Amino acid sequence: MATGVAAAPPVVASATGSPGTVDEQKAAGVGILLQISMLVLSFVLGHILRRRKFYYLPEASGSLLIGMIVGGLANISNTQKSTRRWFNFREDFFLLFLLPPIIFQSGFSLAPKPFFSNFGAIITFAILGTFIASIVTGLLVYLGGLIYIIYRLPLVECMMFGALVSATDPVTVLSIFQELGTDTNLYALVFGESVLNDAVAISLYRTMATMRTHPSGQNFFLVILRFLENFVGSMSSGIGVGLISALLFKYAALGVENLHNLESCLFVLFPYFSYMLAEGIGLSGIVSILFTGIVMKRYTFSNLSEDSQRFTARFFHLLSSLAEAFVFIYMGFDIAMERQSWSHIGFIFFSIIFILLARAANVFSCAYLLNLARPPHCQIPRQYQQALWYSGLRGAMAFALALQSVHDLSDGHGETIFTATTSIVVLTVLLIGGSTGTMLEALQVVGDSNRYHQLYEENSDGNDTGYMGQNYDEGPSTSSKFKSKLRDIRRSTSSFALLDKNYLTPIFTSQNGDRNDDTPDNSPIADKELTVSRGPSDLEGHD
Protein backbone atom coordinates (compact mmCIF):
# COMPACT_ATOMS: atom_id res chain seq x y z
CA MET A 1 0.00 0.00 0.00
CA ALA A 2 2.85 2.28 0.85
CA THR A 3 4.32 1.52 -2.52
CA GLY A 4 1.16 2.59 -4.29
CA VAL A 5 0.95 5.86 -2.38
CA ALA A 6 4.60 6.58 -3.04
CA ALA A 7 4.14 5.97 -6.71
CA ALA A 8 1.14 8.31 -7.11
CA PRO A 9 2.73 11.74 -6.57
CA PRO A 10 5.03 11.62 -9.64
CA VAL A 11 2.03 10.97 -11.87
CA VAL A 12 0.10 13.92 -10.46
CA ALA A 13 3.18 16.13 -10.50
CA SER A 14 3.86 15.40 -14.15
CA ALA A 15 0.31 16.31 -15.02
CA THR A 16 0.07 19.48 -13.03
CA GLY A 17 3.71 20.64 -13.18
CA SER A 18 5.86 20.16 -10.07
CA PRO A 19 7.81 22.99 -8.47
CA GLY A 20 11.00 21.25 -9.61
CA THR A 21 9.90 21.36 -13.24
CA VAL A 22 8.96 25.02 -12.99
CA ASP A 23 12.33 25.84 -11.44
CA GLU A 24 14.15 23.98 -14.18
CA GLN A 25 12.25 25.85 -16.88
CA LYS A 26 12.97 29.15 -15.16
CA ALA A 27 16.68 28.29 -14.84
CA ALA A 28 16.80 27.30 -18.51
CA GLY A 29 15.25 30.61 -19.52
CA VAL A 30 17.72 32.54 -17.37
CA GLY A 31 20.62 30.58 -18.89
CA ILE A 32 19.51 31.30 -22.45
CA LEU A 33 18.93 34.96 -21.60
CA LEU A 34 22.43 35.13 -20.13
CA GLN A 35 24.00 33.65 -23.27
CA ILE A 36 22.11 36.03 -25.58
CA SER A 37 23.00 39.02 -23.41
CA MET A 38 26.71 38.14 -23.52
CA LEU A 39 26.60 37.72 -27.30
CA VAL A 40 24.91 41.10 -27.72
CA LEU A 41 27.44 42.74 -25.41
CA SER A 42 30.30 41.09 -27.28
CA PHE A 43 29.20 42.39 -30.69
CA VAL A 44 28.47 45.89 -29.38
CA LEU A 45 31.86 46.04 -27.68
CA GLY A 46 33.59 44.82 -30.83
CA HIS A 47 31.85 47.48 -32.90
CA ILE A 48 32.86 50.24 -30.49
CA LEU A 49 36.48 49.05 -30.45
CA ARG A 50 36.62 48.99 -34.26
CA ARG A 51 35.09 52.45 -34.53
CA ARG A 52 37.68 53.86 -32.15
CA LYS A 53 40.49 51.83 -33.78
CA PHE A 54 41.52 50.43 -30.43
CA TYR A 55 43.64 47.42 -31.47
CA TYR A 56 44.85 46.46 -28.00
CA LEU A 57 41.59 44.66 -27.25
CA PRO A 58 40.39 42.71 -30.33
CA GLU A 59 36.89 41.29 -30.58
CA ALA A 60 37.94 37.77 -29.55
CA SER A 61 39.69 39.18 -26.50
CA GLY A 62 36.58 41.18 -25.61
CA SER A 63 34.37 38.06 -25.85
CA LEU A 64 36.84 36.15 -23.70
CA LEU A 65 36.86 38.83 -21.02
CA ILE A 66 33.07 39.07 -21.01
CA GLY A 67 32.82 35.33 -20.38
CA MET A 68 35.39 35.53 -17.58
CA ILE A 69 33.60 38.43 -15.88
CA VAL A 70 30.15 36.80 -16.02
CA GLY A 71 31.58 33.47 -14.93
CA GLY A 72 33.37 35.13 -12.04
CA LEU A 73 30.17 36.83 -10.90
CA ALA A 74 28.26 33.55 -11.10
CA ASN A 75 31.05 31.82 -9.22
CA ILE A 76 30.87 34.13 -6.21
CA SER A 77 27.06 34.12 -6.11
CA ASN A 78 24.72 31.31 -5.14
CA THR A 79 23.70 30.72 -8.76
CA GLN A 80 26.80 28.79 -9.76
CA LYS A 81 25.16 25.38 -9.89
CA SER A 82 22.12 26.38 -11.95
CA THR A 83 24.17 28.66 -14.20
CA ARG A 84 26.72 25.94 -14.90
CA ARG A 85 23.93 23.47 -15.64
CA TRP A 86 22.24 25.58 -18.29
CA PHE A 87 25.22 27.41 -19.74
CA ASN A 88 27.33 24.30 -20.19
CA PHE A 89 27.08 22.44 -23.47
CA ARG A 90 28.17 18.99 -24.46
CA GLU A 91 31.09 18.20 -26.68
CA ASP A 92 28.90 16.82 -29.48
CA PHE A 93 26.97 20.11 -29.62
CA PHE A 94 30.27 21.95 -29.90
CA LEU A 95 31.60 19.70 -32.68
CA LEU A 96 28.33 19.34 -34.60
CA PHE A 97 26.85 22.85 -34.44
CA LEU A 98 29.54 25.39 -33.54
CA LEU A 99 32.70 24.29 -35.31
CA PRO A 100 31.27 23.37 -38.77
CA PRO A 101 30.06 26.91 -39.67
CA ILE A 102 33.37 28.40 -38.46
CA ILE A 103 35.45 25.98 -40.53
CA PHE A 104 33.21 26.20 -43.60
CA GLN A 105 33.32 29.99 -43.54
CA SER A 106 37.13 29.83 -43.35
CA GLY A 107 37.26 27.92 -46.61
CA PHE A 108 34.36 29.78 -48.20
CA SER A 109 35.84 33.23 -47.51
CA LEU A 110 39.15 32.51 -49.22
CA ALA A 111 39.76 34.86 -52.15
CA PRO A 112 40.64 32.51 -55.03
CA LYS A 113 43.32 34.56 -56.77
CA PRO A 114 45.63 35.32 -53.81
CA PHE A 115 45.07 31.81 -52.41
CA PHE A 116 45.99 29.98 -55.61
CA SER A 117 48.76 32.47 -56.35
CA ASN A 118 50.43 31.52 -53.07
CA PHE A 119 49.26 27.92 -53.11
CA GLY A 120 52.70 26.31 -52.92
CA ALA A 121 53.83 28.35 -49.93
CA ILE A 122 50.48 27.89 -48.15
CA ILE A 123 50.59 24.12 -48.59
CA THR A 124 54.18 24.01 -47.34
CA PHE A 125 53.42 26.00 -44.19
CA ALA A 126 50.10 24.25 -43.54
CA ILE A 127 51.09 20.61 -44.05
CA LEU A 128 54.85 20.33 -43.58
CA GLY A 129 54.98 23.21 -41.09
CA THR A 130 52.12 21.92 -38.95
CA PHE A 131 53.66 18.46 -38.91
CA ILE A 132 56.99 19.95 -37.78
CA ALA A 133 55.33 22.05 -35.08
CA SER A 134 53.33 19.07 -33.80
CA ILE A 135 56.33 16.76 -33.60
CA VAL A 136 58.60 19.41 -32.02
CA THR A 137 55.99 20.32 -29.39
CA GLY A 138 55.29 16.68 -28.56
CA LEU A 139 58.97 15.79 -28.24
CA LEU A 140 59.78 18.83 -26.09
CA VAL A 141 56.87 18.06 -23.73
CA TYR A 142 57.98 14.42 -23.51
CA LEU A 143 61.63 15.34 -22.87
CA GLY A 144 60.51 17.88 -20.27
CA GLY A 145 58.70 15.08 -18.46
CA LEU A 146 61.74 12.80 -18.66
CA ILE A 147 63.94 15.34 -16.87
CA TYR A 148 61.14 16.10 -14.36
CA ILE A 149 60.69 19.80 -15.10
CA ILE A 150 57.02 19.27 -16.03
CA TYR A 151 54.30 16.71 -15.47
CA ARG A 152 55.21 13.53 -17.31
CA LEU A 153 52.91 12.15 -20.02
CA PRO A 154 53.32 9.12 -22.27
CA LEU A 155 54.89 9.80 -25.66
CA VAL A 156 51.68 9.23 -27.64
CA GLU A 157 49.73 11.60 -25.41
CA CYS A 158 52.49 14.21 -25.79
CA MET A 159 52.10 13.87 -29.56
CA MET A 160 48.33 14.28 -29.22
CA PHE A 161 48.93 17.46 -27.23
CA GLY A 162 51.42 18.67 -29.86
CA ALA A 163 48.87 18.06 -32.62
CA LEU A 164 45.98 19.88 -30.94
CA VAL A 165 47.98 22.99 -29.94
CA SER A 166 49.39 23.25 -33.47
CA ALA A 167 45.98 24.38 -34.75
CA THR A 168 46.14 28.15 -35.25
CA ASP A 169 43.21 30.56 -35.36
CA PRO A 170 44.41 34.05 -36.31
CA VAL A 171 40.97 35.66 -36.68
CA THR A 172 42.07 38.41 -34.31
CA VAL A 173 45.30 39.01 -36.23
CA LEU A 174 43.62 39.03 -39.64
CA SER A 175 41.06 41.62 -38.59
CA ILE A 176 43.92 43.91 -37.60
CA PHE A 177 45.70 43.09 -40.88
CA GLN A 178 42.66 44.40 -42.73
CA GLU A 179 42.36 47.54 -40.63
CA LEU A 180 46.04 48.50 -41.02
CA GLY A 181 46.41 47.55 -44.69
CA THR A 182 48.81 44.62 -44.94
CA ASP A 183 50.30 43.34 -48.18
CA THR A 184 47.99 40.85 -49.92
CA ASN A 185 50.62 38.11 -50.01
CA LEU A 186 51.25 38.25 -46.28
CA TYR A 187 47.51 38.20 -45.60
CA ALA A 188 47.03 35.26 -47.97
CA LEU A 189 49.88 33.31 -46.35
CA VAL A 190 48.55 33.81 -42.82
CA PHE A 191 44.92 33.16 -43.76
CA GLY A 192 45.59 30.22 -46.08
CA GLU A 193 47.96 28.54 -43.65
CA SER A 194 45.50 28.85 -40.76
CA VAL A 195 42.63 27.44 -42.83
CA LEU A 196 44.48 24.31 -43.98
CA ASN A 197 46.34 24.08 -40.68
CA ASP A 198 43.11 23.18 -38.86
CA ALA A 199 42.54 20.27 -41.22
CA VAL A 200 46.07 18.95 -40.74
CA ALA A 201 45.97 19.36 -36.95
CA ILE A 202 42.72 17.46 -36.49
CA SER A 203 43.94 14.64 -38.77
CA LEU A 204 47.17 14.42 -36.79
CA TYR A 205 45.26 14.37 -33.51
CA ARG A 206 42.95 11.58 -34.66
CA THR A 207 45.89 9.59 -35.97
CA MET A 208 47.71 9.86 -32.65
CA ALA A 209 44.52 8.99 -30.76
CA THR A 210 44.14 5.88 -32.90
CA MET A 211 47.74 4.89 -32.22
CA ARG A 212 47.08 5.23 -28.49
CA THR A 213 44.03 2.95 -28.52
CA HIS A 214 45.84 0.44 -30.77
CA PRO A 215 49.39 0.44 -29.38
CA SER A 216 50.54 -2.55 -31.40
CA GLY A 217 52.85 -1.60 -34.23
CA GLN A 218 53.54 2.02 -33.29
CA ASN A 219 55.69 2.54 -36.34
CA PHE A 220 56.56 6.03 -37.57
CA PHE A 221 55.75 5.18 -41.17
CA LEU A 222 52.44 3.65 -40.07
CA VAL A 223 51.60 6.91 -38.34
CA ILE A 224 52.36 8.83 -41.54
CA LEU A 225 50.28 6.39 -43.58
CA ARG A 226 47.27 6.66 -41.28
CA PHE A 227 47.53 10.43 -41.24
CA LEU A 228 47.60 10.58 -45.04
CA GLU A 229 44.72 8.11 -45.22
CA ASN A 230 42.57 10.23 -42.92
CA PHE A 231 43.56 13.59 -44.41
CA VAL A 232 43.44 12.65 -48.09
CA GLY A 233 40.23 10.67 -47.64
CA SER A 234 38.51 13.54 -45.84
CA MET A 235 39.80 16.06 -48.37
CA SER A 236 38.62 13.92 -51.29
CA SER A 237 35.19 13.54 -49.71
CA GLY A 238 34.84 17.31 -49.27
CA ILE A 239 36.08 18.10 -52.77
CA GLY A 240 33.74 15.49 -54.26
CA VAL A 241 30.67 16.93 -52.52
CA GLY A 242 31.69 20.44 -53.58
CA LEU A 243 32.07 19.45 -57.23
CA ILE A 244 28.75 17.59 -57.21
CA SER A 245 27.06 20.70 -55.85
CA ALA A 246 28.67 22.78 -58.60
CA LEU A 247 27.28 20.49 -61.32
CA LEU A 248 23.84 20.43 -59.67
CA PHE A 249 23.53 24.22 -59.57
CA LYS A 250 24.98 24.58 -63.06
CA TYR A 251 22.48 22.30 -64.78
CA ALA A 252 19.41 22.34 -62.49
CA ALA A 253 18.40 25.89 -63.54
CA LEU A 254 17.38 26.92 -60.02
CA GLY A 255 18.23 30.58 -60.55
CA VAL A 256 14.78 31.59 -61.75
CA GLU A 257 12.83 34.04 -59.64
CA ASN A 258 10.45 31.65 -57.91
CA LEU A 259 13.17 29.11 -56.98
CA HIS A 260 15.59 31.37 -55.10
CA ASN A 261 14.53 29.93 -51.73
CA LEU A 262 15.06 26.37 -52.95
CA GLU A 263 18.43 27.33 -54.40
CA SER A 264 19.58 28.88 -51.13
CA CYS A 265 18.29 25.98 -49.03
CA LEU A 266 20.15 23.41 -51.12
CA PHE A 267 23.35 25.46 -50.97
CA VAL A 268 23.14 25.67 -47.16
CA LEU A 269 22.53 21.92 -46.82
CA PHE A 270 25.53 20.75 -48.86
CA PRO A 271 28.20 21.70 -46.28
CA TYR A 272 26.47 19.71 -43.53
CA PHE A 273 25.96 16.83 -45.95
CA SER A 274 29.71 16.82 -46.53
CA TYR A 275 30.41 16.93 -42.79
CA MET A 276 28.03 14.08 -41.91
CA LEU A 277 29.16 11.95 -44.85
CA ALA A 278 32.79 12.10 -43.74
CA GLU A 279 31.91 11.39 -40.11
CA GLY A 280 29.69 8.50 -41.17
CA ILE A 281 32.50 6.71 -43.05
CA GLY A 282 35.04 7.24 -40.27
CA LEU A 283 36.83 10.29 -41.68
CA SER A 284 37.16 13.86 -40.43
CA GLY A 285 34.05 15.96 -40.98
CA ILE A 286 35.97 19.15 -40.17
CA VAL A 287 38.54 18.50 -42.91
CA SER A 288 35.78 17.56 -45.34
CA ILE A 289 33.64 20.65 -44.75
CA LEU A 290 36.71 22.89 -45.06
CA PHE A 291 37.49 21.70 -48.57
CA THR A 292 33.80 21.71 -49.44
CA GLY A 293 33.83 25.41 -48.57
CA ILE A 294 36.87 26.09 -50.77
CA VAL A 295 35.38 24.20 -53.74
CA MET A 296 31.88 25.61 -53.36
CA LYS A 297 33.25 29.14 -53.27
CA ARG A 298 35.42 28.53 -56.33
CA TYR A 299 32.88 26.73 -58.52
CA THR A 300 29.38 26.48 -57.01
CA PHE A 301 29.00 30.07 -55.85
CA SER A 302 29.21 31.54 -59.35
CA ASN A 303 26.37 29.24 -60.48
CA LEU A 304 23.95 30.86 -58.04
CA SER A 305 21.67 33.77 -58.80
CA GLU A 306 22.74 37.15 -57.43
CA ASP A 307 20.04 37.09 -54.75
CA SER A 308 21.14 33.66 -53.56
CA GLN A 309 24.78 34.75 -53.56
CA ARG A 310 23.99 37.65 -51.26
CA PHE A 311 21.89 35.52 -48.94
CA THR A 312 24.26 32.56 -48.60
CA ALA A 313 27.35 34.73 -48.14
CA ARG A 314 25.70 36.75 -45.38
CA PHE A 315 24.10 33.67 -43.82
CA PHE A 316 27.37 31.76 -43.40
CA HIS A 317 29.16 34.88 -42.23
CA LEU A 318 26.41 35.37 -39.64
CA LEU A 319 26.60 31.77 -38.39
CA SER A 320 30.39 31.88 -38.21
CA SER A 321 30.43 35.16 -36.28
CA LEU A 322 27.87 33.93 -33.76
CA ALA A 323 29.62 30.59 -33.27
CA GLU A 324 33.07 32.13 -32.89
CA ALA A 325 31.88 34.72 -30.36
CA PHE A 326 30.08 32.02 -28.39
CA VAL A 327 33.21 29.83 -28.32
CA PHE A 328 35.38 32.59 -26.85
CA ILE A 329 32.65 33.58 -24.36
CA TYR A 330 32.37 29.98 -23.25
CA MET A 331 36.14 29.65 -22.82
CA GLY A 332 36.21 32.71 -20.57
CA PHE A 333 33.16 31.51 -18.66
CA ASP A 334 34.67 28.06 -18.22
CA ILE A 335 37.92 29.44 -16.81
CA ALA A 336 36.08 31.54 -14.22
CA MET A 337 33.88 28.61 -13.15
CA GLU A 338 37.00 26.67 -12.11
CA ARG A 339 36.65 23.55 -14.18
CA GLN A 340 40.39 23.61 -14.73
CA SER A 341 43.10 21.40 -13.25
CA TRP A 342 45.65 23.88 -11.91
CA SER A 343 47.78 21.28 -10.14
CA HIS A 344 50.49 21.37 -12.85
CA ILE A 345 51.37 25.03 -13.37
CA GLY A 346 54.83 24.05 -14.60
CA PHE A 347 53.29 22.06 -17.43
CA ILE A 348 51.33 25.12 -18.55
CA PHE A 349 54.33 27.47 -18.31
CA PHE A 350 56.73 25.29 -20.25
CA SER A 351 54.07 24.32 -22.79
CA ILE A 352 53.76 27.98 -23.78
CA ILE A 353 57.54 28.17 -24.29
CA PHE A 354 57.54 24.91 -26.24
CA ILE A 355 54.82 26.00 -28.69
CA LEU A 356 56.67 29.26 -29.37
CA LEU A 357 59.81 27.28 -30.19
CA ALA A 358 57.81 24.82 -32.32
CA ARG A 359 56.13 27.67 -34.20
CA ALA A 360 59.56 29.14 -34.93
CA ALA A 361 60.79 25.76 -36.20
CA ASN A 362 57.68 25.57 -38.39
CA VAL A 363 57.86 29.03 -39.98
CA PHE A 364 61.58 29.58 -40.40
CA SER A 365 62.41 26.07 -41.66
CA CYS A 366 59.59 26.10 -44.22
CA ALA A 367 60.49 29.63 -45.33
CA TYR A 368 64.11 28.50 -45.78
CA LEU A 369 62.99 25.62 -48.04
CA LEU A 370 60.71 27.91 -50.03
CA ASN A 371 63.44 30.50 -50.49
CA LEU A 372 65.77 27.84 -51.86
CA ALA A 373 63.42 27.60 -54.84
CA ARG A 374 63.32 31.35 -55.42
CA PRO A 375 65.77 33.81 -56.94
CA PRO A 376 67.14 36.36 -54.45
CA HIS A 377 64.69 39.16 -55.28
CA CYS A 378 61.67 36.86 -54.93
CA GLN A 379 62.32 35.39 -51.49
CA ILE A 380 60.01 35.73 -48.50
CA PRO A 381 61.44 38.58 -46.40
CA ARG A 382 62.56 37.95 -42.85
CA GLN A 383 59.99 40.47 -41.61
CA TYR A 384 57.18 38.49 -43.24
CA GLN A 385 58.49 35.32 -41.60
CA GLN A 386 58.46 37.03 -38.21
CA ALA A 387 54.90 38.24 -38.81
CA LEU A 388 53.89 34.66 -39.67
CA TRP A 389 55.51 33.37 -36.47
CA TYR A 390 53.77 36.00 -34.37
CA SER A 391 50.38 35.28 -35.96
CA GLY A 392 50.13 31.75 -34.58
CA LEU A 393 47.28 32.27 -32.11
CA ARG A 394 45.33 29.32 -30.78
CA GLY A 395 41.55 29.35 -30.85
CA ALA A 396 38.38 27.34 -31.45
CA MET A 397 39.94 24.23 -33.00
CA ALA A 398 42.61 23.82 -30.31
CA PHE A 399 39.95 24.29 -27.65
CA ALA A 400 37.64 21.73 -29.29
CA LEU A 401 40.36 19.10 -29.55
CA ALA A 402 41.43 19.75 -25.95
CA LEU A 403 37.80 19.32 -24.88
CA GLN A 404 37.78 16.00 -26.70
CA SER A 405 41.03 14.94 -25.02
CA VAL A 406 39.26 15.06 -21.63
CA HIS A 407 37.19 12.08 -22.80
CA ASP A 408 40.01 10.41 -24.76
CA LEU A 409 42.62 10.39 -21.96
CA SER A 410 42.34 8.93 -18.49
CA ASP A 411 44.12 9.45 -15.13
CA GLY A 412 43.57 13.19 -15.26
CA HIS A 413 45.84 13.62 -18.28
CA GLY A 414 42.99 15.01 -20.36
CA GLU A 415 42.15 17.61 -17.71
CA THR A 416 45.80 18.69 -17.57
CA ILE A 417 45.95 19.07 -21.35
CA PHE A 418 42.62 20.90 -21.39
CA THR A 419 43.80 23.39 -18.75
CA ALA A 420 47.11 23.97 -20.53
CA THR A 421 45.40 24.48 -23.90
CA THR A 422 42.81 26.86 -22.47
CA SER A 423 45.58 28.88 -20.81
CA ILE A 424 47.52 29.00 -24.10
CA VAL A 425 44.42 30.20 -25.97
CA VAL A 426 43.74 32.92 -23.41
CA LEU A 427 47.34 34.18 -23.30
CA THR A 428 47.82 34.18 -27.07
CA VAL A 429 44.50 35.90 -27.73
CA LEU A 430 44.94 38.54 -25.04
CA LEU A 431 48.67 39.22 -25.28
CA ILE A 432 49.60 38.41 -28.87
CA GLY A 433 46.27 39.51 -30.31
CA GLY A 434 46.40 42.79 -28.43
CA SER A 435 49.97 43.57 -29.50
CA THR A 436 49.62 42.62 -33.17
CA GLY A 437 49.21 46.19 -34.41
CA THR A 438 52.37 47.30 -32.61
CA MET A 439 54.24 44.30 -33.99
CA LEU A 440 53.21 44.94 -37.59
CA GLU A 441 54.23 48.58 -37.37
CA ALA A 442 57.57 47.63 -35.80
CA LEU A 443 58.24 45.18 -38.64
CA GLN A 444 57.20 47.85 -41.19
CA VAL A 445 54.91 45.53 -43.13
CA VAL A 446 51.69 47.59 -43.04
CA GLY A 447 50.35 50.64 -44.83
CA ASP A 448 52.78 53.24 -46.12
CA SER A 449 55.52 51.87 -43.87
CA ASN A 450 55.73 48.66 -45.90
CA ARG A 451 59.13 49.16 -47.44
CA TYR A 452 58.78 46.00 -49.53
CA HIS A 453 56.05 47.39 -51.82
CA GLN A 454 58.52 49.48 -53.84
CA LEU A 455 60.90 46.54 -54.20
CA TYR A 456 58.08 44.29 -55.42
CA GLU A 457 56.85 46.90 -57.88
CA GLU A 458 60.31 47.17 -59.43
CA ASN A 459 60.53 43.41 -59.73
CA SER A 460 57.03 42.98 -61.14
CA ASP A 461 57.55 44.93 -64.33
CA GLY A 462 58.46 41.85 -66.29
CA ASN A 463 57.18 38.31 -65.97
CA ASP A 464 57.90 38.31 -62.28
CA THR A 465 55.14 39.41 -59.96
CA GLY A 466 56.65 40.12 -56.58
CA TYR A 467 58.20 37.90 -53.98
CA MET A 468 55.86 35.13 -54.99
CA GLY A 469 57.10 35.55 -58.53
CA GLN A 470 58.23 32.85 -60.89
CA ASN A 471 61.30 33.97 -62.80
CA TYR A 472 63.82 31.18 -62.80
CA ASP A 473 65.86 32.03 -65.85
CA GLU A 474 67.62 35.12 -64.58
CA GLY A 475 71.36 34.99 -63.85
CA PRO A 476 73.70 32.01 -63.87
CA SER A 477 72.35 28.75 -62.47
CA THR A 478 74.15 27.79 -59.27
CA SER A 479 71.40 25.75 -57.65
CA SER A 480 71.86 22.17 -56.59
CA LYS A 481 69.72 19.22 -57.62
CA PHE A 482 67.72 19.72 -54.45
CA LYS A 483 66.91 23.30 -55.40
CA SER A 484 66.00 22.15 -58.90
CA LYS A 485 63.50 19.66 -57.50
CA LEU A 486 61.99 22.35 -55.30
CA ARG A 487 61.60 24.58 -58.33
CA ASP A 488 59.98 21.77 -60.30
CA ILE A 489 57.46 21.30 -57.49
CA ARG A 490 56.82 25.02 -57.45
CA ARG A 491 56.20 25.09 -61.20
CA SER A 492 53.62 22.33 -60.79
CA THR A 493 51.39 24.70 -58.81
CA SER A 494 51.31 26.97 -61.86
CA SER A 495 50.24 23.95 -63.89
CA PHE A 496 47.37 23.48 -61.46
CA ALA A 497 46.32 27.10 -62.02
CA LEU A 498 46.27 26.45 -65.77
CA LEU A 499 44.29 23.23 -65.24
CA ASP A 500 41.78 25.15 -63.16
CA LYS A 501 41.46 27.94 -65.71
CA ASN A 502 41.28 25.80 -68.86
CA TYR A 503 39.32 22.77 -67.67
CA LEU A 504 37.85 22.82 -64.17
CA THR A 505 36.26 26.27 -64.34
CA PRO A 506 34.54 25.69 -67.75
CA ILE A 507 33.28 22.26 -66.64
CA PHE A 508 31.92 23.18 -63.21
CA THR A 509 30.79 26.77 -63.66
CA SER A 510 28.48 28.63 -65.99
CA GLN A 511 29.71 31.08 -68.63
CA ASN A 512 30.20 33.87 -66.10
CA GLY A 513 32.14 31.65 -63.74
CA ASP A 514 35.44 33.42 -64.40
CA ARG A 515 34.19 36.43 -62.48
CA ASN A 516 35.00 34.41 -59.38
CA ASP A 517 38.69 35.12 -59.85
CA ASP A 518 38.25 38.52 -58.31
CA THR A 519 35.68 39.49 -55.77
CA PRO A 520 33.97 42.67 -56.96
CA ASP A 521 33.84 45.61 -54.64
CA ASN A 522 30.09 45.39 -54.31
CA SER A 523 30.13 41.69 -53.50
CA PRO A 524 28.38 40.82 -50.26
CA ILE A 525 31.46 38.96 -49.10
CA ALA A 526 34.04 41.45 -50.21
CA ASP A 527 34.45 42.66 -46.67
CA LYS A 528 35.32 39.15 -45.53
CA GLU A 529 37.94 38.57 -48.18
CA LEU A 530 41.12 40.42 -48.93
CA THR A 531 40.05 43.98 -48.36
CA VAL A 532 43.56 44.98 -47.36
CA SER A 533 45.63 47.27 -49.57
CA ARG A 534 46.42 45.48 -52.77
CA GLY A 535 50.04 44.56 -53.17
CA PRO A 536 51.70 44.59 -56.57
CA SER A 537 52.08 40.84 -56.40
CA ASP A 538 48.36 40.18 -56.52
CA LEU A 539 48.61 38.25 -59.77
CA GLU A 540 48.08 34.64 -60.73
CA GLY A 541 50.56 31.83 -61.10
CA HIS A 542 53.11 32.71 -58.45
CA ASP A 543 53.59 29.48 -56.61
Quick synopsis:
It catalyses: K(+)(in) + H(+)(out) = K(+)(out) + H(+)(in); Na(+)(in) + H(+)(out) = Na(+)(out) + H(+)(in). This protein is mostly helical.
Characterization of the model:
The protein is mainly alpha-helical and 543 residues long. The chain has a domain at 91-449: Up-down Bundle (Na+/H+ antiporter like fold). The chain is 72% helix and 0% strand. The protein has 21 helices and no strands. α11 packs antiparallel against α12 and α16 (382-390) runs antiparallel to α19 (436-443). Mean pLDDT is 76; it is low at 1-16, 451-479 and 512-543. Keywords: Antiport, Ion transport, Membrane, Potassium, Potassium transport, Sodium, Sodium transport, Transmembrane, Transmembrane helix, Transport. Residues 526-543 have a biased composition (Basic and acidic residues). The chain crosses the membrane at residues 27-48, 93-111, 123-151, 227-252, 272-295, 315-333, 345-367, 387-404, 416-434. Residues 41-441 form the Cation/H+ exchanger transmembrane domain. This is Sodium/hydrogen exchanger.
The level-1 CATH class of one domain: Mainly Alpha
Mean pLDDT: 76
Number of helices: 21
- In the CATH classification, which architecture of one domain applies? Up-down Bundle
Would you identify the regions where 5 or more consecutive residues have pLDDT less than 50?
Answer: 1-16, 451-479, 512-543
Based on secondary structure, the structural category is mainly alpha
- CATH topology of one domain: the name is Na+/H+ antiporter like fold
How many extended strands? Answer: 0
**How far do the termini sit from each other?**
83 Å
The main pleated sheet reads as: none
